[in-house]
Amino acid sequence: MDAPSTVVSPARRIGRALGSRTFRSLRHPNYRLYFFGQLVSFLGSWVQSTAMMWLAYDLTNDPGWPAYLMVAQVGPTLLVGPIGGAVADHFPKRRVIQATQFAFMLNAMILTLLVSGDFVTPVLLVAMQFISGLIQGIDLPARLAVVTDLVPVDDVVNAVGLNSLLFNSARAVGPAIAGLFFVLAKGWADVSPGVDPTRWGAAACFAANSVSFLAVLLALSRIEVPAGPVKTERGSFWDGFRYLARHRGLAGLVLLTGCFCVFAWPVLTLFPAYTRQVLGKAEGTYSLLLSAFGGGALVGALTTATFGSHHRRGWFLVIGGAAGWVGLFVLLSATVLPLSMLACLFLGFGMVLYLSTGQSTLQTSVPNATRGRVMALWAMMLSASSLPGHLIAGELARRWPVPDVLLLMFGGVAVTMIGLAVLIASKPFPHQQ
């Protein structure tokens, strides 16, 4: 009698594929600890970011203030980015990240006390965000460069995709959690006259974020890496510029990414005003838009982690930019929530697919001795480009209807895509090192 054949269900085949391809970097214990610690921390960070943007808009009813918050977050990276890159190349990256995560935790705790004590003002929010941005300027180059210390070189592209996956999983879920805190605060205000639901909802979000940093601090303390200083070639921050000058394809990628961020990234700044002006809704709908954006970003990160390779990076850059372009068009045309959420899905997918592919291209093309400094330039370009983008978008939203601002951004992304197509056609990127 023949032995019964084993039939593998489609669901099981998909599960095996995800385990062997999408999540293969989790086989490495150090990276696994780092991944799950960062997941909790990123959740808290997105809860806080959502609360800060809505609190600033609620306090002022001015679309310019969320833009100021974004500028205060990314602007300081330009000031300390060179220092952060040098620190990442010359000191143990794990220790650097531990120090910055502890500083982030203190910042969130102070915010909690200020908001719950009713001392908060828009200017104070911007000041606290500026301090957070200074910390991020040291933290980001180390976090971008540490991946190569946690996984072998063959898994770097996958690990970068998974980092994007966890960040954007938090981006999808974090705003929903923040919305829940605001709903609970509103319920409390309904039975307790005199309670400000926005202030107490924001305070709960900030408190949750401060606790979330304990997860990544615990994970970092258990990662087994050499504790001594990193041995790198002696050099300065300018070595990063010199490397890009010798590899003009990578330099072009960095510059075009800056253009993409100028026109696409400020859409997040416009979400609070878009929610009220176009959809006529409140903070619950704002959280839904952010969650839809995060859901699309999650799909983009999964795509990078599962299918990303050196052979596909040109296509992924083009597809990501095109999806963001389509998302902007749908958003500026939409007047109902379902269509707006669909637009946000496209935006999240496209922006993350583009940025994670660009980041992994740099990660796998730059030698270890200068990787921290080159990644600092990448972080600085993202900040330098999004800073004027947020400011201009916020100022224009004061004078123009939000859909008109989105139309201008749509045109800018279209021009950037033409430049990207020319760059990809020249096949300029070096092979993995």
Automatic annotation (TrEMBL):
Lineage: Bacteria, Pseudomonadati, Planctomycetota, Planctomycetia, Gemmatales
Name used for this protein in its record: MFS transporter
Species the sequence originates in: Limnoglobus roseus
Keywords on record: Cell membrane, Membrane, Transmembrane, Transmembrane helix, Transport
PANTHER family, per database record: INTEGRAL MEMBRANE EFFLUX PROTEIN-RELATED (PTHR23513), STAPHYLOFERRIN A TRANSPORTER (PTHR23513:SF11)
Annotated ranges, domain Major facilitator superfamily (MFS) profile: 30-429
Membrane topology: Multi-pass membrane protein
Residue ranges of the TM segments: 33-55, 67-88, 108-131, 200-220, 250-274, 286-307, 314-332, 338-355, 375-393, 405-425
Compartments, record wording: Cell membrane
